[in-house]
Design goal:
Layout (H helix, E strand, L loop, with lengths): L2 H22 L23 H9 L19 H16 L2 H11 L2 H25 L1 E2 L5 H28 L43 H16 L7 H12 L6 H21 L4 E8 L4 E8 L1
Helix pairs in contact: 3-9, 5-6, 5-7, 5-8, 6-7, 6-9, 7-8, 7-9, 8-9
């Protein structure tokens, strides 16, 4: 045996006992010494500059919801255009409607229609006068509606005077009058008739617009809108129909135009002057009562 082979055999003989002892010994678990455990680094404090920035930052207001624009017919100008168009369309029907009233209704029916229109116009006016009272004893909403009704009534009265004088439309008579007869700015055609007070006195007023219908819609609209009671419009509609059926009353377009203008005036007054209040002020403590006049526009 060579010397190299003899050296390898001796080394193997010396290593075998240690290897066998290692294999027969139980396995010992390995624990990492505490000193070797990795320590988590602490989170450093925020920089004062960052804190100041966060403190002084102004929160952005929430974005307003995007709403679709209202259709044109819901705007004030759109509503006015619809009213003008409806009045113009009724112009084409004036002659036929007046001919029907003259030939199908008796003189008694037409007088009843005139009386009904007059009475139905006075009722809301009297009601507004009795309820336009600012007092703890009276419903505030009712007093406010009556105040708007009075304000609108004054406005449409001025509108009626101006339009009757400027337009000067001839009233229908006996079914043979043209609905297109106009005498604008004619002082001979009065804007106010005193015939209702003194029968036979005073000339017929200009036909457009119907003053009865104009005033009736102006008086009723505040109550119909504030109390959400559209059925109240039956009153001014009945006034308008009565004026068409009355002897020498109005063309249908006079009623349509007057009714629309009365409603629009009262509606705009209510929306653009919501704090308008006029009327009596009544207060008392059980022993004495104070009465005054309130006015705010």
């Amino acid at each position: 045996m060579s010397a190299r082979a003899a050296w390898l055999a001796g080394a193997a003989a010396l290593a075998l006992p240690d290897l066998a002892a290692a294999q027969s010994a139980p396995a010992t678990p390995y624990f990492m010494p505490p000193s070797a455990v990795l320590q988590t680094a602490p989170v450093p404090d925020r920089s004062p500059v960052i804190d100041e920035h966060l403190t002084n930052t102004v929160e952005e207001p929430p974005l307003a919801p995007v709403t679709a624009p209202s259709p044109w017919y819901e705007s004030d100008w759109g509503v006015a255009a619809i009213g003008v168009a409806a009045t113009g369309l009724t112009f084409t029907l004036d002659h036929g409607i007046n001919l029907f009233a003259n030939t199908k209704l008796s003189s008694t029916d037409r007088k009843i229609a005139l009386k009904t229109a007059d009475d139905l116009e006075i009722i809301p006016l009297a009601f507004a006068g009795l309820t336009a009272v600012q007092s703890p004893l009276v419903d505030a909403r009712l007093a406010h509606a009556s105040s708007i009704a009075f304000t609108a009534a004054a406005e449409v009265t001025a509108e009626a005077f101006a339009l009757k004088y400027v337009i000067g439309r001839q009233r229908p008579a006996n079914g043979d009058t043209s609905p297109f007869s106009f005498y604008p700015f004619n002082a001979a055609r009065s804007t106010v008739s005193i015939g209702a007070v003194f029968p036979g006195a005073g000339a017929d007023t200009s036909s457009f617009p119907s003053g009865h219908t104009l005033l009736a819609f102006a008086l009723i609209t505040p109550y119909a809108e504030l109390y959400h009671a559209p059925w109240l419009y039956a009153i001014p509609v009945a006034v308008g129909v009565g004026r068409i059926a009355s002897p020498d009353g109005h063309w249908a377009s006079d009623v349509v135009g007057g009714g629309f203008l009365g409603w629009l005036t009262a509606d705009l007054t209510r929306r653009y002057f919501p704090d308008s209040d006029y009327g009596l002020m009544i207060f008392g403590d059980g022993q004495q009562m104070m009465v005054g006049v309130n006015g705010r526009f």
